[in-house]
Amino acid sequence: MASDVTIGRIDADEFADFRRVFTQTFGFSMSEEDLARIRPWQELDRAVAARVDGRIVGTSGAYSFDLSMPGADPARCAGVTVVSVRADQRRRGVLTRMMAQLFDDADERDEPFAALWASEAPIYGRFGFGPAAPGISLEIERATAGLRTPVDVGAVRLVDRATAAAAFPPIYEAARRQRPGMLGFADTWWERLLDDDPSHRDGAGEKRYALLDDRGFAIYRLKEGSWDGGLPNGTVHVQELIANDPDATATMWQFVLDTDLSATTRAGRRPVDDPLPLLLQDAGRAKVRADWPLYVALVDVPAALSARGYAVDGAVTLRVHDRFRGSNDGTWRLQVAEGKATCEPFTGEAEIELDSEVLAALVLGGQRATRYAAAGRLTAARPDGAARLDRLFATDVAPWTGVMF
């Protein structure tokens, strides 16, 4: 029974307890300095706590983002975060009740999407979250990092944090207009991205901020190696690298790959269609692995499907099963004309049947309906039904989110 558990907001003076419950649940601690540093990033009016006898036993919250859409303006999105339930309060419906509150809040704010980074993905499928923006990690050995076409990196300059704070956001916003899945966020988030707390360097050096005019930037660190055999073997860790044309892309990667005292460059949470391997003389030298995807849920199915643009016109009827959010459960007719969609309830037979988490995985064009059909997680009334859905949802470039929250 969860009758003694209450779900509600937190006051400003509960912030420290709220964050400490979250960190302790995952086995790490938080100092007063850490609390002070992250306090500006927490949207207190979106924090939802579970309490027993007045004590916080579960945490959750959301950030107010917008999400880049294929062929349309960005749509509002709740960035779900700091989700935890104390070990002795699990399997009592606490998480479900907190998630229901977060979804209701998002609905009230006209946010058709919610998104999160899932530390344990199976937990979130029942709430309608699907892996909508897959990612990869890249590892390149400097000895084999020669580009097919050498570039001049003379225009790239290392800048201080203040310069980065002014120059990087417009470059990022330009990139967001070209690729679905990227998040728009407030100035406080740029403070977080550029933050360089020494206690969070994990043995690496200071953050470096590299800028190429108004066309590209990189945020990275060098972690010094052991100098085995008297040779430098440090590792470059790329936090962000954004470039807005092919020449800028090659230039920024060349600059980072050529970091002094490094032997390896590692970049996580990159788009699955990142061009870096193809820039190399030998693409096979790049070690490519699957990385964390961004999980997306549809708070409001018709609003979410109408928020994006479509490259082809057409229509499809979807039977969506949503065991968490009843307003989404039903049959919907998606009609696309001149790239814009309407989505309305439908009383006839469905052409496609799928769970809400599968539809969420497909919505940005980062997953294939035919793949889900092959796995038995989507059924189509016609043999070409899944392929037709893929053509409808297709995007020019892969969706991508590189910023964790």
Please provide a written account of the structure.
This protein is an alpha+beta fold. The protein has three domains: 5-116, Aminopeptidase; 135-291, 3-Layer(aba) Sandwich (Aminopeptidase); 301-393, Nonspecific Lipid-transfer Protein, Chain A. The protein has twelve helices and 18 strands. It has helices at residues 15-25, 32-38, 94-108, 121-125, 161-176, 187-194, 246-257, 276-279, 301-307, 356-362, 369-374, 385-393; strands spanning 5-9, 48-52, 55-69, 72-85, 113-116, 130-141, 157-159, 183-184, 208-212, 216-223, 234-243, 262-271, 287-298, 314-321, 330-337, 340-345, 352-355, 378-380. The strands form two sheets. Strands 1, 2, 3, 4, 5, 6, 7, 8, 9, 10, 11, 12 and 13 form a 13-stranded mixed beta sheet that branches. A five-stranded mixed beta sheet has the order 16-15-14-17-18. The longest helix has 16 residues, at 161-176. It is globular, with a radius of gyration of 23 Å. The two termini are 32 Å apart.
Distance between the termini: 32 Å
**How many domains comprise the coordinates?**
3
Structural class: alpha+beta
Give the CATH class of the largest domain.
Alpha Beta
- Name of the CATH architecture of the largest domain: 3-Layer(aba) Sandwich
Helix content: 25-40%
| Count of distinct strands | 18
Overall shape = globular
Question: How many H/I helices?
Answer: 12
Would you tell me the overall average pLDDT?
Answer: 95
Summarize this structure as a short list of keywords or feature phrases.
5-stranded mixed sheet, 405 residues, alpha+beta, Aminopeptidase, 33% strand, globular, 18 strands, 3 domains, 13-stranded mixed sheet, Nonspecific Lipid-transfer Protein, Chain A
